[in-house]
Design goal:
Number of helices: 9
Helix content: 25-40%
CATH class: Alpha Beta
CATH architecture: Alpha-Beta Complex
Shape: globular
Number of domains: 1
CATH topology: Spore Coat Polysaccharide Biosynthesis Protein SpsA, Chain A
Length: 272
């Protein structure tokens, strides 16, 4: 089988239905499968899936076990040569998945291939980044980020100095849409289940580089992402009281502790 498409859902019935309908309308010309993991939804998502998509395999967890646990469960239950993990708020277009699979198939050094993400208004969405130091989350969440020097750091981290219409290796990519080579994923051991939510994508990309695999941003393939940035919905210290923000901060601590005093992996930034 060429491709396994994995979605992890929690209480997003409408987005999930729209995404699955989009996959159907894309008429994907690959040997592929779709699997959904539901992490304890209470909005009728499971019932909607059983009624509207009875042929799609479903892993229904009674509680929210976290994104990494759900993803690893789905990987073990699928068999595609490549794994496409997408958020439920991604819109799929005809021909895009074939383009991604053909490119990674032709470039055996790539462990993760990421499409170019667009906002609903078709503007470019920031979805590839340089590895961050602990100061970056502080600058992004506090007024310190408004100072000119901080703005330079943030622009570099967000790769705003780079042409997003090209194909190139990058440090890491947003986990909203990523095509993963199964053999590479098996080599790195899957997603680190210590990350309940957030930083699991940063960590997975770093592990790919650590094991000699490339992470590549592929602009010719484009998807729409209805990005919500839940953890950043409230500004400043007010956001500390939000559940998503607390999880984001905890995951950040885990990430920086995991790589404390470890050098960054070798990652030559040249066209693959």
């Amino acid at each position: 089988m060429d491709l396994s498409i994995i979605l992890v859902n929690i209480n997003e019935r409408g987005f999930l239905r729209q995404c699955l309908r989009g996959i159907e309308r894309a008429h994907v010309k690959l040997d592929y499968e779709v699997l959904v993991v539901d992490n304890g939804s209470h909005d009728g998502s499971v019932e909607m899936l059983k009624e509207n998509f009875p042929s799609i395999p479903l892993i229904a967890s009674p509680t929210n076990e976290g994104l990494s646990v759900a993803f690893n469960k789905a990987v073990r239950a699928t068999q595609g040569k490549y794994i496409l993990y997408i958020n439920y708020d991604i819109a799929i277009f005809e021909g895009v998945l074939e383009k991604l699979v053909h490119y990674i198939d032709a470039n055996p050094k790539i462990g993760i291939l990421a499409p170019k993400l667009l906002n609903p208004d078709k503007s470019v969405q920031t979805s590839c980044y340089r590895f961050q130091s602990p100061i970056i989350p502080v600058l992004r969440r506090t007024p310190l980020g408004k100072f000119p020097r901080a703005q330079r750091y943030l622009r570099q981290y967000l790769m705003l100095d780079w042409n997003h219409d090209t194909v190139n290796t990058v440090d890491w990519i947003l986990g909203a849409a990523m095509l993963i080579r199964r053999t590479a994923l098996e080599q790195v051991g899957g997603m680190d289940e210590r990350f309940f939510l957030y930083y699991e994508d940063t960590d997975l990309c770093r592990q790919m580089w650590e094991h000699g695999w490339q992470v590549v941003y592929y602009a010719p393939a484009q998807l729409i992402h209805f990005h919500q940035r839940t953890s950043a919905a409230s500004p400043g210290l007010v956001s500390i009281f939000k559940w998503h923000t607390r999880i984001h901060i905890m995951s950040g601590f885990k990430y920086f502790l995991k790589y404390y005093r470890q050098p960054l992996p070798n990652r030559p930034h040249a066209n693959p």
